[in-house]
Amino acid sequence: MSAASHFADRLGEAVCRRGNPVLVGLDPRWDCLPLSFRQRHGTPSHMEIAAAYRAFCEGVIDVVAPLVPCVKPQAAFFEDSGPEGMRALAYVIAYARQRGLLVILDGKRNDIGSTAAAYASAYLGADSPWGADALTVSPYLGDDSLSPFVSVAQERGAGVFVLVKTSNPGGGLFQDLDVGGLTLYRRVAAFVEQLAGSTLGTCGYGAVGAVAGATYPAQLSELRAAMPHTWFLVPGVGAQGATARDVAGAFDPAGLGAVVNSSRGIIFAHSRKEFKDRFSDRDWQRAVEAATHQLIEELRGETPAGRLHAAS
Amino acid sequence: MSAASHFADRLGEAVCRRGNPVLVGLDPRWDCLPLSFRQRHGTPSHMEIAAAYRAFCEGVIDVVAPLVPCVKPQAAFFEDSGPEGMRALAYVIAYARQRGLLVILDGKRNDIGSTAAAYASAYLGADSPWGADALTVSPYLGDDSLSPFVSVAQERGAGVFVLVKTSNPGGGLFQDLDVGGLTLYRRVAAFVEQLAGSTLGTCGYGAVGAVAGATYPAQLSELRAAMPHTWFLVPGVGAQGATARDVAGAFDPAGLGAVVNSSRGIIFAHSRKEFKDRFSDRDWQRAVEAATHQLIEELRGETPAGRLHAAS
Hints:
Helix content of chain A: 40-55%
Oligomer: homodimer
Structural class of chain A: alpha/beta
Number of domains of chain A: 1
Number of helices of chain A: 13
């Protein structure tokens, strides 16, 4: 296997190649789609919704593939359209990879050992029918629930992102509990960093990453210091209220170590006030392009990711 | 809405009607299927695997539908066969419900608020393309990630089972951490009990239940005392090593309040030593029937669930 087959290295290379760390979230929501995808009478069937999601995500990918290193389809929205939605999800993953994007599937899966192995095989394995590059997973079930994902990731050059500090307001209910002087999320972080350290690529980061929300900037910096070998997937910028400046602490001094997710702020940019006046609903792809450039520039201006650009 | 449209009431009625609390897990694994489902040359395609899972689960349902109140399809194994597997999952859920079984889908889903709402809509909503009666969910993301499931469950007479104390050996890594004198799982339990208390049916139990593993019998009893309004989904009997006696503490004095899951021990009974001699591979359904009766009898003999039988 070449060095580049390690997920952390592939991610680092993709980020350097594009000169930015933007992770575009593919979260199709029927009510937010440009009107051209919704022109029909009456309530759409699951099949119609799934077809619209597929076409819409294809259109987003066409715009962002030359601009960003990676995309993150959100499984929930595809699952909401049933088996047809899942077929659309498989198509979207394959299409994005074909267009040269790394695909981090946001499924937040997990289960006990042998069932976790089935999830790992499903999404990251050699015969995976989905073929994602990485998967988000939940830590509550403990170490033996995470190890099947880590094994498959190592075998296959795939990645795993474990929830550590999530971006939602209620995330703290359990994550912020004090456990012997440290918060629970710091305990999870320590375990994830250990997994990252045991799965290092040549770039110094491991195949196991962490989800850490942009909506908690101080904690992001704290986690960056505590997790020097861990790639961060940072959600929360845009619709959830965090800014580019809020994610500055997630990066290492070279501008690596974090990918910054924006979903609605990019894919539904056509309905954002600032773009609505510039682009008609029909020009939704130009709005996606403008919003992507905007986030790239903000991250370059406000975070160490600016150094990627200078180097690229 | 009639009283029976509340999930906790529907579950209680189904348990009383059958006189036992057995929850048969539908966890199809290719290598464990009876040979008749695997007769082909070379490596099976995802489509062939999905078709075998569908036919096998249909065969299991035909046997157990007259015997037990509910089944629990494990999403992971269906996801491992891709979109075709998901189509099989949708079929299996519909078939089980058509045969009068309650269906608890084991997906351990969750995400932040608006994405959690998509999962809730997907699996439990009015237009759900899957149509499960209940779903297992993970608590790590906190209160605002659980509330969309609770809302949909209340609107739709559906149920939610939140992971509290899982059955795997590594579950304690985070769940057993001491949080101000209580374990983390007890903190999660307190929150779940509060949700259960706010979603009560006429039976005295709520629409929000808890997953609590049979492999930790002392903790099961402790949780039963701490969670008087919470239905328990108890995995871990059989292949994971727990016995009927281990789950005695999960029940209330009337024999209600818990459903006891066995997956491999029932559906792959044809390869269990004790049944292998009595039934040929071709008679796998008779092995399923015998294993189901065996667990029913053990639970009647060793737990308060015996009182259901006397009453039914």
